[in-house]
Amino acid sequence: MNKCIVLGLLAAAVVFTAGCASEPIATHIQSDPPGARIEVNEGTVGTAPVSVVLPQHGSHHRLREHVTIRAYPTGPGQYQQVKQLYYNQWAPQNIEFDMTQSAAPAR
After folding, report:
1. 104 belongs to a structural domain
2. Which of 20, 43, 87, 102 could form a disulfide with 59 if both were Cys (CB 3.0 to 4.6 A apart)?
3. Is the pTM of this model over 0.85?
C-alpha cells in the first residue's frame, strides 16, 4: 500500500514539474486607434496590433531585464506612449496604448 502511495506521489510530481516547464508567453500589444509603430527596448517590432516575446527567465514567465515599450503616433491628436516593465515582473499577456492620451504635465 505504501509503495503505491509513493509511486502515485512521484508520478504527480513528474506531471506537475513537466507542466511548469513551459514556453515563454507572447505579449499582445494593441493601440487605439490601431497602427501605432511599436518599439521594444529601442528596436522596432512592428505596428499594433503585434505580438512579441519579451525576455523571460525560468518557467514562471518573469522578465529577465527592464523592458521599455514605446508606441508612436500615426496621426494628429495622438501622442507617443511609453510603458516600463521591470526585472522579475510577470510578463504581461496584453498591453494596450490609448494614443489619444497626452503625457502628464511636468511639475
Report:
1. no
2. 20
3. no
Domain assignment present for residue 74? The answer is yes
User: C-alpha cell of 60?
Assistant: 514562471
- CATH number of the domain where residue 72 is located: 2.60.40
Do the strands 43-47 and 37-40 form a parallel or antiparallel pair, or are they unpaired?
antiparallel
Amino acid sitting at position 51 = S
CA-angle at 46, arms to 51 and 53, nearest 5°: 30
Question: CA-to-CA distance for 22 and 37, rounded, in angstroms?
Answer: 30
Q: What is the rounded CA–CA span in Å between residue 42 and residue 37?
A: 11
Q: How many residues does the chain have?
A: 107
Residue 2 domain-assigned (yes or no): no
pLDDT tens profile 17-67: 444 557 899 999 999 999 999 999 999 999 999 999 999 987 789 999 999
